[in-house]
Amino acid sequence: MLNFQFFMPTRLLFGPGCLARLGDTPHLPRGEKAMILIGSSGAMIANGYLAKVQGLLAERGVRSVVFDKVRPNPESDKVEEAARTCRELGVDFLVGLGGGSTIDTAKAVALLSANPGSYWDYMHGGSGGKQDAQHPALPVVAIPTTAGTGTEADPWTVITKTGSQEKIGFGNDSTFPALSLVDPELMVSLSARQTAFTGMDAFFHAVESYLNTTRSPMNDMLAMEAVSLIGQYLPAAVANGADLEARTAMAWASTAAGICESIGGCISHHSMEHALSAFNPELPHGAGLVMLSIPYFKRLGELAPERFSDLALALGAEEAQDRPESDGPELFLARLAELIQAVGLTDETLSTYGFTPEQADALADNALDNMGKLFDVTPATLTRRDVAAIFRSAISD
Fold first, then answer.
1. What domains are there in the chain, each with its CATH number?
2. Is the pLDDT of residue 370 over 90?
3. How many other C-beta atoms can be found within 10 angstroms of the C-beta atom of residue 306?
């Protein structure tokens, strides 16, 4: 029996060139002062994106202050620093311009700007204070420049506690972006490697949400669309970043998978990657997901083979229609391996990032302790021994 709910308050503007609509959309949050968050790499400045956003806001009578200290796998101390600035300056809304780390940080800052204490007071995993925020977050405008996290279409933000190995996802109804502008033209400057990593992140959002035990019919439709589009277009976007057709297809696939994160959600594959990048913040999230994926989905397929045939079919394995359900995981894994090879990530290894098999037990504890809720919606019970074995296999391969 179907039993689900749907809530997504984000106004989404999509399409090549749609950034210009920031200058006239009636859906811009009200206020006279905005904080624009960008990454510390300087890419938003070098590509002219920051200046364009500032100009469009200025046309609307909105002054802006820039916070340019966001790094990949963002940490709580930067959230708290930016929130203090927001409170001191009386910021009315925030703009996250960049990849998932930047937009996630904007959401976290928006929440903390409106509530007292430290960011970790509101975490419900690990050493979090398990408090509920008393006030809604400030409005957020999301402008993604990667096709990966789908954070423009969900309430989730993933932050690491500074000085620790706790990396935890969080969100509530108020941390959905108020407005998201998804402009594929902003993604053509992304390198082939970043395109591959972020595209595979979107891929696994869709795959995991399709397997999630809380899925719904709308989730299933969007997940299958995203899996199919990424299988078709990610290799093309990696091969030629200027291919606007491929960039547009990937942008929509990422956003669709982001909606899936709102109405379905990820499973424990993501919990396990968060443990990896908590141990080594230099590990790109998408890379960690790729390197875990074969042993993870192999074990999950052994325990719960249902629905893997659908995923294989979405990746072009037409033989999945005629093979028994028990063959689904094998067919999916074969197509997954082909996709990883097609986007140039076959040679990525966890040992290159400093991981050793001896860390498997500690990584398993981290994944279960900090993001254990995603194990609850995984379609099979993965024991601590299973989780450690998956880590060990991924590191050894």
1. 11-187 (3.40.50.1970), 192-396 (1.20.1090.10)
2. yes
3. 14
